[in-house]
């Protein structure tokens, strides 16, 4: 059969053998998810990043002189295993060589005792030198090398801790950058002000990674944007360098005190500063530079927070960039609720999800006025963080996902938490109509021209995927297009559509993720899903489907092609998580009974393992586009389950699109 525009559809007979197979996979996947649920109802899957995080853990130990040979041997095993065929290390599985990641990985292996003459070290060194050597590393890698005395401080941009004393109106202010930049940079400014030298007990050096003496290299400071403002900032950097030594220590000392107060206030117990490894590691090194005793409670707590990030697998270990329990639990709860959409209130599995939702409700941040309150001082807190605790830094994406899950249960006891979340989300909308993850109107793009910003992740501007999640949440609980926040948000989404018909995905890879997110929002908001722009998005998604019925998009899609087309069918394989996003997006656009969705569902059915899991080694998300990528181990489980359960549910009703926002 076909719909009015001629798109082919096929009816799904829930009594067929295919439906039976579908139900079997749903039950296996559900059982798998229940088996790994914690007793208190929450889920927490590993979160894997690139080699820099485990390498930096080793570097941290040797900076502090706290070598742990047994642990570091396991980390080294992991680092060696993920070395690329070209000898270097990429930013994501099967990605291209990256010089900064490779320098850190090589340095870490040498610190743990790998002989530079060993074949894997020779291969790594040759690859690094072929790309210009360690001097071609980015700013953060150069700062690490400077702390170890491997490069002179002139290899790094001028960074003055006195910026912490700047008034709010000043162009460069700590609250005008993203939360992650803020928490990483404040302790780092203590280090750049004091310029300590790492303990480095084994006196390891990296002379072999430079094309000439490491103290004679031409450490060119790069313009990150190639804009004339960036060139001007490089000139200012050169002018500032010779006068640094004449600046009075009084303001430096005052700034250090302010930085230490910032850290202490946000230390966040054993969940760590900002809940992210780089900030925690910098804080620990800053404590050491300030000669704070190692038995100081702040130091002990900071160390425990870092060690809680470790994942052990037989003879390997890696360090996570952060923990993701709230995100994992919220999304897993959606999958379970979808599976049991027609279940009665006494169903045992619903009771299990009740525990999950109780666990989530308890983590709502109701008392802490976080950094976001700098720009919204009268807004009442009501969000959720990504980690177990991170009260200063809730994010609207987690908040929307969690509140939607609470709302889906139909349990009225969650209503106060849901309404408070809605109040906070509405208050966090940026002036352009979109939502960012953690901050409001964080669009001070002039700052991206600073040499310090060569990592390209200084800011937290609004994005289509986060905005879509907020629209989905508000629409699900009853907001309609007459509400100003909804009206402005939908206009923002329509402006952000790409020429191809897709939407950019800031926090998941990439256009498939963004397009699914927006189509879900358009659907639940009651917008017309038959318009040409939605048809174009549907056509784009269908055009990306592979012959095996699945979808797969490479992390390289974050580098725009010359013609700015988003066509990634040359990616090596289909991924379960991305296939799930694609068919969820198509179902939201009214294509639940199309051949494309049926083929996508069949791909998920056929690739499900006997234990109810799926295989997905490739990275499926992004921390910072073109800089830092992530592999959520839970994505391969709860997203396919959500998609298959929704496919089944739509097939058994007269509806052609879902009734929930996610």
Spatial sequence of strands, sheet with the most strands:
1-5-4
CATH architecture of the largest domain: Alpha/alpha barrel
DSSP helix count? 22
Strand content: under 5%
And the CATH topology of the largest domain?
Glycosyltransferase
Question: How would you classify the helix and strand content by structural class?
Answer: mainly alpha
CA-to-CA gap between the ends? 28 Å
Runs with pLDDT <50, length 5+?
A: 1-16, 343-347, 562-569
Mean pLDDT: 91
Classified by CATH, the class of the largest domain is Mainly Alpha
Number of strands: 5
Global shape? globular
Helix/strand order, N-terminal first: HEHHHHHHHHHHEEHHHHHHHHHHEEH
Biggest sheet layout:
3 strands, antiparallel
Estimate nothing, just give the exact number of structural domains. 3
Q: Evaluate the radius of gyration.
A: 25 Å
Helix content: 40-55%
Architecture overview:
With 662 residues, the chain is mostly helical. It has 3 domains: 1-35 and 528-662, Alpha/alpha barrel (Glycosyltransferase), CATH 1.50.10.20; 50-319, Glycosyltransferase (Alpha/alpha barrel), CATH 1.50.10; 343-496, Glycosyltransferase (Alpha/alpha barrel). It has helices at residues 17-35, 52-64, 69-81, 99-111, 119-130, 139-147, 179-194, 228-240, 249-265, 277-289, 297-307, 325-339, 348-362, 396-408, 415-427, 464-476, 484-495, 511-524, 532-543, 576-588, 595-607, 635-651, and strands at residues 47-48, 310-313, 316-319, 621-624, 628-632. Strands 1-5-4 form a 3-stranded antiparallel β-sheet, with no helix packed on it. The chain has a two-stranded antiparallel sheet with strand order 2-3. β4 and β5 form a beta hairpin. The longest helix is centred in the N-terminal third of the chain and has 19 residues, at 17-35.
